[in-house]
User: What shape does this take?
Amino acid sequence: MSDEYARVQAAAAFVRERIPAAPEIAIVLGSGLGDFASHVGDAIVMPYESIPGWPPARVIGHAGKLVVGTVRGKAVAVLSGRAHFYEGHPMANVVFATRVVAALGVKTLLLTNAAGGINTSFSQGALMVIDDHINLVGTNPLVGPNDERFGPRFPDMTEVYSKRLRAVADRAAERNGLQLAHGIYVGLHGPSYETPAEIRYLRAIGADAVGMSTVAEAIVARHAGMQVLGISCITNMAAGVLPQPLNHAEVMETAQRVRGAFIALLEEIVGTI
Ligand code: HPA
Assistant: This one.
């Protein structure tokens, strides 16, 4: 584990040398939100593959980049492209970016994602503030010997998603005239979508939306003492809710459709944090 600490520190040192000021807020962009990166002022762009220790991308053409600059006067680090567990990355790689931004001094982490709607009162294209999560990924990013320099052995998970930041999101949505749902996000391993029976089970245990990211990053962020806000774009109704199969094209289409409103919301949130 101490090797992992050195790997994170090396990446953070590389980034630190290239930026004028430490970012306060980091934003992880989910599917279809890549455009947000172009809204960063005074942007310093670092392709992930240029950063020492950064995990290699598994999906060709989706290497991703770290963009450091300003949004509404705030120093931000934007992570465009994330490593998913379903791609076969070890957990340490899935949470590497989260640990690097923590090492840079980021205090607030904004996680965005695409998710399937389990709550039948949601509609496609809705945005949902994550009030809490259920980890059904099948593992935990903190499995293994604990390195105290990252955080404590048994971190508290009572308030993974900051109550204060959830209220900030509500106020930002109100100012933008945007409806914002709230709910519980359940994180699964993937990459197959769920069966209708699994969705009924997930609804029964209290989940409102389902996805394949975010949970591991949120756990590691709390381990590191960062404040977390999570927002899901409900890109599709979950399996069995509607009489039609799911497909990735639909997920991307919906993400594209609401991208403008989502980006405006993120900017408004960053401005108010
Ligand atoms: N299930 C899991 N992950 C997802 C979904 C879904 O329906 N939509 C977008 N990501």
Summary: The longest helix spans residues 248-272. The domain at 3-272 is CATH 3.40.50.1580 (Rossmann fold). The pocket of hypoxanthine is lined by residues 114-116, 193-194, 210-212, 235-236, 238, 246, 251 (CB under 6 Å).
